[in-house]
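Hi L.,

You mentioned the student needs an example of a multi-chain input paired with its predicted structure. This one should do, with 227 residues in total across all chains.
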Amino acid sequence: NAGVTQTPKFQVLKTGQSMTLQCAQDMNHEYMSWYRQDPGMGLRLIHYSVGAGITDQGEVPNGYNVSRSTTEDFPLRLLSAAPSQTSVYFCASRSGTSGTGELFFGEGSRLTVL
Amino acid sequence: DQQVKQNSPSLSVQEGRISILNCDYTNSMFDYFLWYKKYPAEGPTFLISISSIKDKNEDGRFTVFLNKSAKHLSLHIVPSQPGDSAVYFCAATFPGGSEKLVFGKGTKLTVNP
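Structure written out for the whole complex:
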């Protein structure tokens, strides 16, 4: 049972480079989201999706782009990486019928922008 | 404006004793509160939740208490075990299974053998 899978686990970029963090879930969850975790800041919501073809912004969306073409996948794109985007990124999903908001998280992707 | 606050960055307790992790919130519209546990290099995992219409929820060694009038909740771990050493995040959500889960900054719990 894979759950939520994120790739890559580690990535180093130079300022201005672009890349995509991949996220896939095999639980047929409608809702998927991306969070970033920074020291002393907790987890902050970047973008989320309530279903294929539907995305919306979270608390810190600037510099990131998302799309949701299938239920399973929710990639996060950095269009022009900046040092401020150095962080640990977590993808999460939950069932649309979950009234409690319980999320299932991936193991994280650690990104360093030089 | 931080809506969910965990004012203690760290907590250290002895094995076998009680661990009490605290969380305050400012938005009275929150209707579910959750605790997540996170080990280093892993994603957060769900621990326990409580509805705003309840004041207590228990699951084994873990109990969450909610005081709505004080906008305060706490997580009790009894007895504490070394394997409980992790960062604990308090989180809250709005009615309807909201898409936006709001997290506190976390409290690092260390349980000493």
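You could point out the following to them. The interface with chain B takes residues 4, 31, 33, 35, 40-45, 48, 50, 56, 58-59, 90, 92, 94, 96-108 of chain A (CB under 8 Å). The first strand of chain A starts at residue 4 and ends at 7.

Best wishes,
N.
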